[in-house]
Each structure stands twice: as structure tokens, then as C-alpha cells.
From TrEMBL:
<dbReference type="InterPro" id="IPR045736">
    <property type="entry name" value="START_2"/>
</dbReference>
<dbReference type="InterPro" id="IPR023393">
    <property type="entry name" value="START-like_dom_sf"/>
</dbReference>
<protein>
    <recommendedName>
        <fullName>START-like domain-containing protein</fullName>
    </recommendedName>
</protein>
<dbReference type="Pfam" id="PF19569">
    <property type="entry name" value="START_2"/>
</dbReference>
<feature type="domain" description="START-like">
    <location>
        <begin position="1"/>
        <end position="125"/>
    </location>
</feature>
Length: 127
């Protein structure tokens, strides 16, 4: 299997870290922007898009700071992480996305994240 490429994206989000975290860490929050529907049982999250389901395990989380998931079928150590960073001087809130994709799918994955975060901003009323 090809090694996946790690990539990171940053988005400035006009929101409090506490509110943003709710949209990153709860099934109801994630289903507002990330997937059509999200269910969870403990650490196991089921993401549903257009009738297809993907299972992910919640690896780590820290309240108001980050969530880290791994897709069930990924056996290569890849994960996706959504981290909230607050600039100490300006107090701007940024969302850092870390994800992995096959070399020929990196640009497509970045575009997908950009579109999804655009939906998140809309839900939050952020510009």
C-alpha cells in the first residue's frame, strides 16, 4: 500500500473555542457541517454521507482544544485531527486540520476540507 501524505490546513473561524469545539466533538455538531448524519457509541463514531457509512474511532480529545479520529479501515496509522488554536495577542481563533491522503488525492482532500469548513463557518455565522 502506498504511504499516505500528511497535510495541514488552517482556517480562521470567528467563534469562541468553546462553541467551535461543540461542532467538532459531538455527533449533533458534526452532522451540522461534516456529514449528513453522525452517530456515536462511546469512542466509535459513524459518519453517514449519501447513504454510505464510515466508522471512525475517537483517539483523543481535549475540551475546547482538539479532537483526533482514525478511520476504522485505515491500518496505516493515518488519522484526522481538528485543533483549535487561539492567538494569544489578537485572540483570533483558528481551526487547524491535519489529515492524510494518497498522493494523487491530496488536492481533492484539501478542497473537500475547504468546502466542509465553509459549511461550518456558515453554521457558526462566521465569515
Amino acid at each position: 500500500m502506498d504511504d499516505k501524505i500528511k497535510f495541514q490546513l488552517e482556517f480562521v473561524i470567528q467563534s469562541s473555542p468553546q462553541l467551535l469545539y461543540q461542532y467538532l466533538s459531538t455527533p449533533s455538531g458534526l452532522s451540522e457541517w461534516f456529514a449528513d448524519n453522525v452517530n456515536s457509541r462511546g469512542e466509535k463514531f459513524t459518519f453517514i454521507w449519501d447513504g454510505s457509512e464510515e466508522e471512525a474511532k475517537l483517539l483523543k480529545r481535549k475540551s475546547d482544544e482538539f479532537v483526533k479520529f482514525a478511520w476504522e479501515e485505515s491500518e496505516d496509522g493515518s488519522f484526522f485531527e481538528m485543533k483549535i488554536i487561539v492567538d494569544e495577542i489578537t485572540k483570533d481563533v483558528s481551526l487547524f486540520i491535519t489529515d492524510f491522503a494518497d498522493e494523487d488525492e491530496v488536492e481533492e482532500s484539501k478542497m473537500l476540507w475547504t468546502n466542509q469548513v465553509s459549511d461550518l463557518k456558515q453554521v457558526l455565522g462566521s465569515k
